[in-house]
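Issue 218. Parser rejects a valid record. Input:
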Amino acid sequence: MPELGRTTSAHKRSDSPDWLPGQGANAQRNAEPKPRSAGVRGARTRVLIPRFGIPAWLADGVAPRVTGPRHRPGMRDASCAGAQIDSSSLTVPAQRKNLGSPDSTVRFPHLTQEMVELGDLTVAHSVLEPGWRWSIDVRPSIGGEWCQARHIGTVLSGAFAVEFSDGSRMELTAGDVYDISPDHDGYTIGDTPCVLIEWAGIRAFSGFRLGLSGRHLVTLLMTDVVNSTSMARDLGDVAWRDLLSSHYEMARAQIEDCGGREVKTTGDGVLARFDGPAHALRCATAITQRTESLHIRVGVHVGEIETVGGDVRGIAVHEVARIMAEAGPSEVLLSETTRALAAGFDFDDRGARQLKGIGEVRLYALRPYGV
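Output the parser choked on:
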């Protein structure tokens, strides 16, 4: 299993829209849909918890899509204003794998984690044996005072507890669905194994080594959905949340694959931190190229931040937000400092821009390349 994670506040099952982006959106679809306790589907897949149900449009095999003029870097929001809704193809080829035949297996003392890969999504079946504790069985191998991965999953059987760095504690038992953020220790409860299914925090399990106190020089990446208000209005609340949830899953997978760490979601986007600009730029390219039905703009900036719990503060956070806001659909903009530190990439000079509250800054656009 993972080192159970935590967000600004830990959650069990929640029906609020704020929790939905932490989960997936699509389910496996058969010719005659049947109830399943866990369905997996395609590059944007989630494990379904049966009592949640699925949206009617998804059960019927209809998935919304936004179409419009082809977008190019540099185009502004107005280019999306005339987008039309087409229900023909948010669908992706169905995939099926069995956790009994995992793609990979990770073992620590008292812990076995078996994983399957479905496009951008990794799903793990984890067995925590009685007596397992992250700080005793996992920490010696990866370092750090607390587990630094965020975990989203469900408890199939048994029970475990999470203790956070602020002194709070939470117990989870069979049937609980959780979203747990970094800065925690975890351990099993009782004399029976605890069995979990997780679909976030898995790749990060075997090795975050991030300092979480003081100030750090990092590369920040921030994304945003172009013309999101109009799309949400056209699609409707349920379909929009489902589409956005799929995007979050894909973005989180790319952040983990590129060695970054998600800090938080920001309305319709994600804020993440990386150790250097090369990883952040590769992640930005992957996110923009793997988003089919949404048009994403990205800002990347190197600067100093202060970590407060799982969040980050500092002028660099405001700077990356202003840089991102200047980008067009499917465009990645970065500061001059970031460009100077990013060897091996090609850029187009976008000239000096007046950023609100910051002043004049020269910006550069990352030239697209294959991922």
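Fixed in the parser; the record now loads. The longest strand covers residues 296-308.
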